[in-house]
C-alpha cells in the first residue's frame, strides 16, 4: 500500500508547495523569487501580519489561509495539494521556522524552499558587524541556558530570539544577578519597519530595559575584559 508521503510526492512532482521566507518583515527585503511564488500561487498561507505586509502583491483572486493550529494546516494542505500553494514564514526558512514541521508531517521532497535573511542577520548588518563567532539560540517558548553558554570561551556572545516572558529585561537582569559584567546588550525591535528601534547599553544599565518590547532580537556581546576580575 502506498504511504501518504509517497502519494504526496507523486501528486506534486510538477507542483511543489512553495515555502517563502519573508525576511525581517518589510516587503522591500523579499526576494524576487519569493515575489514570483506569491504572485503565481492559487493559495497563500501566512499569519495576519505577514499577509498584511504583502497586500500590495496579493491579488483578490487568490485564496487566503490564515495560519492557526498546525494540525489543521496539514489537513488543509493535504486537501489542496494539487493546487499552487505558497506558505509565508518569517525571516530565514532555515532558522526556527515552520519548515521542519512541514517536512515531518508531509515530505521534504514536496517543499520548494525560498530562503531569506533572518532578523539577526539584518541587525548585525545595521551594526556593521559579523555574527559568525556568536552562538544563535532562542528562548521564544523554549528553554536555553544562556548563563552557561555566555561563558563559553569559544564565542564572542549570544544571539537570542525572545518572547514576552523571557524578554531582554528579564534575561539581562538574570545575567547581571549571576555576576555577568563587561557585556554589551543590543536589542533590535521591529527590524526593517518604519518604527525600527535599536537599543545599545551595557549590562550594568539593564534596568533601563524594564519596559514592554515589540518583536525583537537580543544580542549579548562580550567586552574585551569579559570574565576578567
Automatic annotation (TrEMBL):
Entry keyword Methyltransferase: yes
Pfam hit, one: TP_methylase
InterPro entries: 4pyrrol_Mease (IPR000878), 4pyrrol_Methylase_sf (IPR035996), 4pyrrole_Mease_sub1 (IPR014777), 4pyrrole_Mease_sub2 (IPR014776), CbiE (IPR012818), Cobalamin_biosynth_MTase (IPR050714)
Keywords assigned: Cobalamin biosynthesis, Methyltransferase, S-adenosyl-L-methionine, Transferase
Annotated EC: 2.1.1.132
GO biological process terms, semicolon-separated: cobalamin biosynthetic process; methylation
SUPFAM superfamilies tied to this protein: Tetrapyrrole methylase (SSF53790)
GO molecular function, a single term: precorrin-6Y C5,15-methyltransferase (decarboxylating) activity
Domain Tetrapyrrole methylase: 16-204
This protein's pathway: Cofactor biosynthesis; adenosylcobalamin biosynthesis
Keyword Methyltransferase: yes
Name of the protein this chain belongs to: Precorrin-6Y C5,15-methyltransferase (Decarboxylating)
Biological source species: Fusobacterium nucleatum subsp. nucleatum (strain ATCC 25586 / DSM 15643 / BCRC 10681 / CIP 101130 / JCM 8532 / KCTC 2640 / LMG 13131 / VPI 4355)
UniProt gene name: cbiE
Amino acid at each position: 500500500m502506498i504511504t501518504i508521503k509517497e502519494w504526496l510526492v507523486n501528486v506534486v512532482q510538477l507542483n511543489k508547495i512553495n515555502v517563502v521566507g519573508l525576511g525581517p518583515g518589510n516587503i522591500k527585503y523579499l526576494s524576487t523569487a519569493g515575489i514570483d511564488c506569491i504572485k503565481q500561487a492559487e493559495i497563500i498561507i501566512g499569519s495576519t501580519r505577514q499577509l498584511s505586509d504583502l497586500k500590495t502583491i496579493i491579488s483578490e483572486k487568490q485564496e487566503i489561509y490564515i495560519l492557526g493550529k498546525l494540525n489543521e494546516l496539514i489537513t488543509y494542505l493535504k486537501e489542496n495539494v494539487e493546487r499552487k500553494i505558497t506558505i509565508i514564514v518569517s525571516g530565514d526558512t532555515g532558522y526556527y521556522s515552520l519548515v521542519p514541521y512541514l517536512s515531518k508531517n508531509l515530505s521534504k521532497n514536496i517543499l520548494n524552499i525560498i530562503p531569506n535573511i533572518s532578523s539577526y542577520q539584518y541587525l548585525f548588518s545595521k551594526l556593521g558587524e559579523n555574527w559568525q563567532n556568536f552562538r544563535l539560540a532562542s528562548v521564544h517558548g523554549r528553554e536555553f541556558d544562556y548563563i552557561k553558554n555566555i561563558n563559553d570561551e569559544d564565542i564572542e556572545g549570544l544571539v537570542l530570539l525572545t518572547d514576552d516572558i523571557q524578554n531582554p529585561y528579564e534575561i539581562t537582569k538574570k545575567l547581571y544577578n549571576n555576576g555577568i559584567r563587561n557585556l554589551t546588550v543590543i536589542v533590535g525591535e521591529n527590524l526593517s519597519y518604519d518604527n525600527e528601534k535599536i537599543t545599545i547599553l551595557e549590562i550594568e544599565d539593564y534596568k533601563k530595559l524594564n519596559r514592554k518590547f515589540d518583536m525583537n532580537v537580543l544580542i549579548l556581546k562580550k567586552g574585551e575584559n569579559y570574565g576578567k576580575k
